[in-house]
Structures are given as C-alpha cells and as structure tokens.
Amino acid sequence: MLRLNVAVIALCIVIGASGIMADGPPKVKAEQFIVPTREDFLRALKLDTPELAAVKAALDRGDIEAAGKAYIAYFRAREIHPPVAPNWSAMKRNPDYNTSRAASCLAGHLWDGYSVYEVPETGIDWQKAPLSCLTRFPVMSPICYAAHHTRDAKYARFIVDHIKQYMGAYAVEEFVGKDRHGWRGDYTPALPWHWCMIDMRLSKMAEAVALVRSFPEVTDEELLQILQRMYEETTWLRMYIKAMVDGRHNGGCSWMGTVLDVCAVLDDFAATDEWLQYNAQLLDQYIDQAFYPDGMCIELTTAYSLSVAHQTQRMAYAMREQAGFETAKPKLAAMVTCMTAFGKPTGRVPSFGDCYASYATSAAYKPLLEYLDLLWAARMIKGEDGLAPPFLVWPQPDQEQWCGYYAMRSDWTKDAVFMMIDGGPWGTSHQHGDKLSFVVSAHGADLIIDPTPTRYHNNEPDRFLSRQNNGFLHNNITVDGVDEYMNCPRETKEPLENTWEHGEHYSLFAGSYSFAPVKAVEWQRRMLFADKSYWLLQDVISGEQEAADIEQNFQFEKDTEIEFRENMTVATAPNGARLVLMPLSGELKPQLTIGDKQPRTSYWPDGKPNQTLWGMEGDRKNHGRGWTGRWSRKLMPAPAVTYVGKLKLPAMITMALIPLKPEQSIDDLPGITARSADATTTWTLPIAGGSVSLTTSVDGCQVQK
Which of 155, 204, 205, 242 would bridge 137 by S-S if both were Cys, CB 3.0 to 4.6 A apart? Predict the structure, then answer.
C-alpha cells in the first residue's frame, strides 16, 4: 500500500510572521513522502476513472509492468493544460527558432543565472560544480523550447538525462529529516531541498515532462521514474509550504505556483485534488497577508514584486472557480493598478530594492484583466491607444497610503514627465538604503535613477559585483558621513501619514527620516510638482548640533552628460532631453563622480560604520558613487552629482528640478521667486496662466491656495 500521510501538512505548527516552525522543522519521516514501490505509486492514481481502467485491471491481476505501460500510454496521449508552465500543445512551432543557447548547453557550456561552468568529460559534478543554482534546473527552459520548435530528439534526450543525473546524484531518501535550508555557498550547488531550488526545479520538471512524453526516444520507464520523483518531492514540499506562505516571502508565491504546475502533470493522481484545494486556501491567505491594501507586495522590492504580482494573478485566474476569488478581486485589481502607476514613461519600473526591475506591463496577467474590469489596463498591456489609466498620481487622492511609494506624471505618453519617490517602510526583504530617494524620467529619457545592482555572485574573472544597497549610493542625504540605515520598522500596520496633497496645478509630497540614534538629526524632504512640468525640491535638516557636513546625492543614468554652470547642473540624456538642477537656496557645491572605486564608510544596514559593501563569497568590491547595474556581472560607470558643504543647522536646501525637451533652450527656465519673513519663505512658481506658491519653514510647508 501507498505509505503517504497527507494529513501531516495540515498539522504543521508555524509562526505566521516569520515562517519559522514554532518548535523547529516538523519531524518528517520517509513514509510521509517516499513511495516505496512502483505498485504503490500506480495505486495512488484515480483508478476508478474510466480512462485508467486498463491500469486498474493490470494491477488487479498483479502485472505491475503492464500497469505502468498502460498508464504511460495514457499519459503520453492525454491533454495537459498547465496554468503557469508553457502549454506546448497550444504553442506553434517556429522553424527559425534560435537554438544557439540550447546547443551551447548540449556542448557543455552551462550557466545558472550567475556563474558559468565548462562541463568536463567526466560529466556534471552535481556536488562541486561552481553553479550554486544547478539543482533548480536553470538550463531546462531553453532546451525545452529548442526541443519543441525543432522536434530534434537530441534535446529531449538531454532533458531526460539531465533529470536522471540529478536523481542519481541526490536520492530522494536524502530529503528525510531536512527542512527548507541547504545553501552551501556561492560556487557550490545548493542542496535540492533548499527553498529556492525545489520549487523551480519541480516547475521545470513539470514543464519538461509535459514536452518529452511525446518523443518516442524517451522510454516508458524513464517517464515513470521522473513522475514518481516529482510526486515524492511535491509531497515533501507540501509539508513546508504553509510555513513559506506564512512567511509572506516571494518564495511562498513560487511554491504555490509549483504545486499548480505539478498538479497539471499529475492530475491523474488522487492526491492532487486535495493539493489544489489546499493551494487555493493558501493563495487566499497570501493575497490577504503578503500585499498591502494598495496592492503592493510587502517586500517592497519593485523587481521581485513585479514577478510576485504576476504569479499571484496567474494563480488566482487558474483557481478563479474556487471559493474566495470574488473577495480577492479588489486586491488583484490593486496589484495591476499600482504597478501600472510605477511604470516610467520609458517602460520599466524604477528599481527600488534589489535586482533590475522589468516593465510595468509584466506585472499584469492578461487573461485576468477582463475579469477585473480593468479595460484601460488591458489596452495598455496590448499596446492599444485610446484608453489611459484614470489617474496621474498614485496613491490616488482618495486612497490610503500604505506601501510608501508615490508616483506623479504629466500624462501617459512616452514623453511624459514622471517622478517616483520612496517614502515608506524598508520592506520585509531585499532592502536598500533608499528612503526618500526618487527617480525622474522626462521627454523619453531616464535621467535620475535609483542605482541598480549586479548579480549577487559570478565566477567570471572580469566580474565587478555590488548589490548597491548602501544609503550613500541613493538619491538622498548624508549627514557628517552617516548615511541611511534601518532604524525604523520594515513594514507598516497602519496607513502612512506623509503629506500627499493635490490641487489643480500641483502635487505635494513630504516625508521624513531620522538619523537617530547615530546622529540626533532629522531630515525632511519636500517635493512640489508644479503644473505637471517641473519640481521644487526642498531638504530640511535640523538637530541639536550647530552645523553638519551635508551630501545631497543625485545618481544619473549611464551615458548622461553632465555640465556645471556655476552651481547649476545640466544633465543631458543621449536623446537630447535634459534635466536642470537649479539651486535656489543653500551653499552646497556640486561634485561629479563617475565610477569611483575608492572605499568609503557606510552605516548601512545596522547603524555601525563599515567599509564593506554587500557582496558574496570573494566578491565584496568596495567602491564609491557613480555606478549602476543591469543584473549583469559588472557595474557600469554612471555619473553621480553630489552637492556638498557644511551648513548651519537648521538648514533648508531648495532647488528646482526642471526637465527640458531636446529642442528646448537651456535658458527656458521658470522664473521662481522667493519672499522671506519671520523664519518662513514663500516660493512662487510660474504655471500656465498664473502661479502656485509654497510657504516653507523648518517646521512644515503649505501650498497657498
């Protein structure tokens, strides 16, 4: 009989906030997930279904070999419609498909998303290869696509042999007593039960077996072995999936998607009905707990959150008939809305936090949009004209502030003027020192950017890696050499109370950060968007000390040309669009930094001074400002302009940020005026047909209506 105890899944006791087992990991025994015999595996099928009558008959007469052949004959022919993995039966073949990457893998040149590996004649070393993510099958997808488009059996054989080599290197019995850990280093394969390996590997196995079953060069016995291993590993995964979802990390989302992929392939097995039902319950929990009411993932890393939002929507669509879908629809719509709002006119989302964020459209799952009645989103995703989102600022004026991202734009064209500010908590994972940092895009160009990281690790000799998470690298303030560090909560349980005010011709943001306890200094950043065309930026620094050395940093996109005209900065993008930084008060002087390799002190992340920028094994590269990344193996020089000087406290630093079209004269700058009285200053900003005024003091600011 099949020795499988599904009930153990529901009995795991976990701590919801952390995803850590209350008394350590559950005591997982082999009989809870390992299927001891081929007969036990086949008897786990839904043998009462007419399609499997031949399998049942063979089992009843004790002919296990015939039962296996009967099942695989049915399995090869039946339809598989995976909700997440590729649907090979619906995908047209491309006779001109580029197979170069797949061919490179077959020639022994492997890559795991980070490092490279030349496979020796003795074959892949599954224990010591320099590919930390080897056990999540990173090479599988390009080879699957090559197999599909060419129908060349050599690709199908590589796929099956790769899976069999893995199975031979890591027997399923080794999973006994293990939990979700198993990272061994940046240049050693992670153990297959590591949380970031098992889910992706199982998805790739599901993707692969749904394809190679149609190749006669793949034997029945090979398919049975792979399917049984998938069944066992999925059962093991499900013993820990609640803890992953309770942890509200992106891994919980990925694990649920894996269950859907596997269930599509193993749909003939009785256990999958319960697996899907349980998955639906967990997805409902995840949507409720892992996203703020405004639709943003609590992790707050925009690159990861794009993917998490898309995967969550895709799973919700696949399980839309399950109970709870209707109640989840508002938050699903909010996911699409907020990520759309974050999209720069140039397409990508600003890369707050780790990685290099993708395009805003990648956050939406197209089939779901009509169910959410988001017609404007559907048209944007398809690239159609005529129906723009019904807002220019986000959060919208009547919306609560939760995640702390704020976006404002002139319109929804590719030439729009756009700014996004990070004014919220740090996020629950993958944090960067970017509080009150911002980005600016205008007239078809990205100008001020949030500096992006490289890959986490890489073994190529010319690598220059950095996560770029230290505070001084971002578009914010450094006081007496102290940059931002995490000294306040990573998430919020209540709506934020930043100033986010709007009128007919303006939008106003104001948020703050304290350098305490390292420095008894408060910093408030104010940003007034005037007439949807330019900004007044004001940084207010106050504290108990008489004076402070201040650095006000602005990181520009690579290939931006920088010119100083006295204290004014003129930044010119490759397409000719410009951004003028025009100081209006304060005595700071601009400095240009491009690709600085000199180490400097940072207080990120814990308030303790250090000169080690975050890296991984052997890859810690100390450096200064003036870099950006593209999730590649090397940082790229990019100009940083830093206004520096000593100021008496309290101090107010005011400047205008003025985007100019390529054909617009550099002299075409708004005539901003100031009037001071009784420790306040009123700034008058020209707008079409009049002006808008902002009265400022150390204590606050107010638009004069």
Answer: 204
DSSP state string for 428-472: SSS--S-TT-EEEEETTEEEE-PPPP--S----TT-B-----SGG
Please state, in angstroms and as integers, the Cα–Cα distance from residue 250 to each residue in 135, 278, 304, 588, following that order. 19, 18, 7, 42
For residues 402-425, b (16+ Cβ closer than 10 Å) or e, as one string? bbbbbbbbbebeebbbbbbbbbbb
Contact criterion met (CB below 8 Å) for 153 and 495: no
Q: How far apart are CA 227 and CA 211, in angstroms?
A: 13
Sign for the CA dihedral angle at 180, 184, 185, 187 comes to negative
pLDDT at 3: 27
Give which of 485, 432, 518 is closest to 603, Cα–Cα.
Answer: 485
Closest CA to 458 of 101, 111, 195: 111
* Residue 431 CB coordination number (10 Å): 21
| Percent of the chain residues past pLDDT 70, beyond the cut | 94
pLDDT of residue 23: 42
pLDDT tens string 81-122: 887 778 898 999 999 999 999 999 999 999 999 999 999 999
CA atoms within 13 A on the CB side of 270: 14
What are the helix (H) ranges across 122-270? 140-150, 153-169, 195-212, 220-238, 241-246, 250-265
Closest Cα to residue 427, out of 335, 313, 306, 300?
A: 300
In the sheet with 477-479, reading across from the earlier edge strand, the strands are 477-479, 547-555, 639-648, 589-594
**What length is written for the chain?**
705
User: 53 CB contacts (<8 Å, ≥6 apart)?
Assistant: none
The closest of 338, 579, 538, 557 to 446, measured between CA atoms, is: 557
Q: Quick one: CA dihedral 240, 245, 248, 251, positive or negative?
A: positive
Cα–Cα separations (whole angstroms), residue 136 to 168, 194, 280, 559, 595: 15, 9, 25, 36, 35
Decide if 701 contacts 538 (C-beta within 8 A): yes
pLDDT for residue 10: 28
Tokens of 298: 């609590």
Q: Which of 427, 368, 84, 435 is nearest to 248 (CA)?
A: 427
* Residues 115, 463 contacting (CB under 8 angstroms): no
**3-state secondary structure at position 573:** coil
Cβ count near 442 (within 10 Å):
29
SS (H, E, C) 248-259: CCHHHHHHHHHH
Give the three-state DSSP class for 687.
strand
Please, are residues 173 and 30 in contact by the beta-carbon 8 Å criterion?
yes
**C-alpha to C-alpha distances, 616 to 434, 456, 459, 601, nearest whole angstrom:** 21, 7, 11, 19
Residue 1 has what pLDDT?
Answer: 26
Tell which residue, 437, 418, 435, has the closest CA to residue 426. 435
| H runs (alpha helix) in 96-194 | 100-106, 140-150, 153-169
Parallel, antiparallel, or unpaired for β 521-530 and 506-514? antiparallel
Spell out, as residue ranges, where the chain has pLDDT lower than 50: 1-25
pLDDT tens sequence across 8-56: 222 232 222 233 333 444 567 788 899 999 999 999 999 999 999 999 9
Return the pLDDT at 18. Answer: 31
Nearest to 576 by CA among 673, 661, 449: 661
pLDDT of residue 384: 72
Question: What pLDDT was estimated at residue 619?
Answer: 62
